Amino acid sequence: MRERMPGWFIRILGALVLVFLVLPILIIFPLAASPSDYLSFPPTGVSWRWFHAVLSDPGWTASLRLSLGVALVSTLCAVLLALAVALALVRTDFRGKRLVYALVLLPMIVPHIITSIAVYFFFSSVGIPALAGMIIGHVALAIPVATIILSATLQAFDMRLEQAAQSLGASRLVALRRITLPLIAPGIAAAAIFAFLSSFDELLVALFLSSPEQQTLPVRIWNAVQFQLDPTIAAVSALLILFSAVALAAGNFLQRKEQA
What we know:
Layout: H1 7-26, H2 28-32, H3 49-55, H4 58-91, H5 97-109, H6 112-126, H7 130-156, H8 159-167, H9 172-183, H10 185-200, H11 204-209, H12 217-227, H13 231-259
Helix pairs in contact: 3-13, 4-7, 4-10, 5-7, 6-7, 7-10, 8-9, 10-13
């Protein structure tokens, strides 16, 4: 028989992996709070000047507003489409069901650089505005994760509740709207959060379709890194990390609430 690895060894190995993954991210925060005019670690003190510089700069705030607007529109479209796809996949049985599911997940599997190039050349050839193309590209990238979450949510839903409503005279649409959707609302909210993060943090599609006047926050960070490397970049990155961490925690909380 094989011998099991000692528990202490597994815990130490897990702790080392966690440190390896988290430590580079945590270093961003002292870099962002440095009073120096250049990136230095360890910092010589603590200052909020770079956070203030980011939030008072018109370029950074314009990119933030654009990223939020694109992410909100993309999230709304992605969740609506993913909900329709999840309902079809979970509640109906048809030939090619697995193929359809695989095709829905394809944007998650295909490297984003390939998706970005395809989106860029397609929308350029048909004359679709860059901003609309960016939103469509973000929707395509957000649909897979939203579909996975909503499919799992619908599979865990007790169909007898909807059937009971229909037996009392409610139509399928009314039962879906008044019974199913309110009960799976935490799952829908979790799907929306992860879809929002998928769009808000996306770089490659936005990089191909952005212009000097319209740059999302990840694109502006990328361009700033190319030409200047100062604590402003660390401050923006720290704000993004905090925002993403809060959103992920909220999404995980909603998923656990749905499963409870």
